[in-house]
């Protein structure tokens, strides 16, 4: 008996050891052979990611003596280096001048296109067009790999419900269902399920985790939330990216449950690897290992040990791994096995890319000319941009404009190349972008266009200095604000219509660009007011990297087209929509608040025990004294030049069993004067369950083209998993009971049917 027990214990120990060793899949023999040859120093060298500073340096340091470090076998990867020839040189040093000749990973931030810059991700998400989004990622991969890059620091899938946070621009907005679909589309676009191809690259899902929930919307700030909220509302897009095969994960700057993500073992091992089965590698964010010192987690040796023991494999720029891990092994604080496991994951990534077979696979100097900035790629950028625009208001149906109209084009963003690409487009060239004035002339050569700047983006020089770190985004004219305005008013005199291009400069959103006041800057608000006073029809073309507070502008008798930062084809795409060559079809993917005090405001809020009455204010209910609960513009909202009517919502069953799918059909009629596309949306309300349910939450959508006068029947399928949620024990389950289904053109959809899950 004792013998059997002993054997069982032994077996359990072996199983346990081999599961840490083998991770989730079979070892790759070539990698195992290489690992056996490596010294501890060489293994640590592979965990080191450097940048010589050719890209955007978002931390306070860039790497020094990079060439010497590569020769010494101290580097596993580089970023901020581009061009097939430069990358060939770097690979040659790694391959020819080091003992084992291990090639480098070459990373980059290709967030919304490489040189062909697409709209910012928040804009792209507003297209609700997964095929298009995948195509943009595929093109980005083709261009970037042509320029030598094999590893992308994208997609960013952080759920963001606080538009003060500047990086809301880099993601897909507030919703985990849509965010998961987009995460999958982007990973598939970059990796194409085949990393052996020369035009695919490794995708990195970031920033793991909860980075978008920074308190107060202040970048890099702490986050704190319950596990159930995390699992139900914030984690799904990361998981979707991993399920889609993302090979790498980037840890975030913030802490999660009080432990910075880069040193959080629950996050990087228990959840990511043990629960989700992730078997790729984890890279830190820019110096985020070192930053754990400032978080209060100890000195460089302590935080580096914390990170590697937590499950972080590669240290971006900080060199804490390089300089302290050896000592930590000597002192027994880190095991060599932990380092070997991290090194194995990085070598496996290189193996999957085919770099051992051919380290110069991405160094074909003929490719850039052939693959980058092609006419076809720019055509997709134009299509993506016009599909990302959201028509917020169309006063007296002034849009679309006639192609021979007399147009006064005004505003600081109307004839401006420096702000078209949007945040995090360091590989793009703003000078290649099409300004709005040029686009209008291209699309409507017969229009009579007069242009005047009208206002500065901001009149505040100190503010402009903060924004202009990467170039002249806010240019304050030598003319006085009054003179600028007067000039603009003069140009409006003979016009039929005023088109005012206003909003945020590129770097007013994005990393380290949080704002507490998210209105249109005062200089431009004043200009808008004066333009409206002329009595002429006014169309605002609004640019921003976030939802704005535009409560004042929504009350004016004007039309508003939200165009985000549209990318390289900005002007052409804006003109396509203004003149009706394309009928706008975008829908908001994050709610636009009435005012900053309402934040966070999102469609899937809970009812509370004291729901607000739908009519007048009532004491002791969950509401504000000075603003409604509803946002100014709801999630899923967006107009078209035509109108759509929904009727005959039907479910294929009123009772279903666990595991069953359910089908909803609805008839959508184009009742207006233009052909157009509509995003048909399905929202679900789980009426009674063990965790207080959201009032409704997105669970399906379908973008459909409908000719004027035509009716289409749209089918949406609720999968068994769509009824599930993570309960208090974090089990993913569906609880029996009644469900309500709402279908319509935005999150206020009112057509309703019910069913029961047995
Ligand atoms: C950002 C990351 C980016 C990294 C490297 C960081 O500051 O948070 O998103 O990938 O820099 O450029």
TrEMBL record:
Location(s) in or outside the cell: Periplasm
Domain of life: Bacteria
Endpoints of the signal sequence: 1-22
EC number of the protein: 3.2.1.21
Domain Fibronectin type III-like: 678-747
Transmembrane segments: none
Gene Ontology CC terms, in alphabetical order: periplasmic space
A Pfam family it matches: Glyco_hydro_3
GO BP: glucan catabolic process
GO molecular function: beta-glucosidase activity
Keyword terms: Glycosidase, Hydrolase, Periplasm, Signal
Reaction(s) catalysed (UniProt annotation): Hydrolysis of terminal, non-reducing beta-D-glucosyl residues with release of beta-D-glucose
ATP-binding found in the keyword field: no
Similarity field: Belongs to the glycosyl hydrolase 3 family.
PANTHER family reported in the protein's UniProt record: LYSOSOMAL BETA GLUCOSIDASE, PERIPLASMIC BETA-GLUCOSIDASE-RELATED
NCBIfam families given in the database record: PRK15098.1
Protein name: Periplasmic beta-glucosidase
The species this protein was found in: Leeuwenhoekiella polynyae
The organism's taxonomic lineage, starting at the top: Bacteria, Pseudomonadati, Bacteroidota, Flavobacteriia, Flavobacteriales
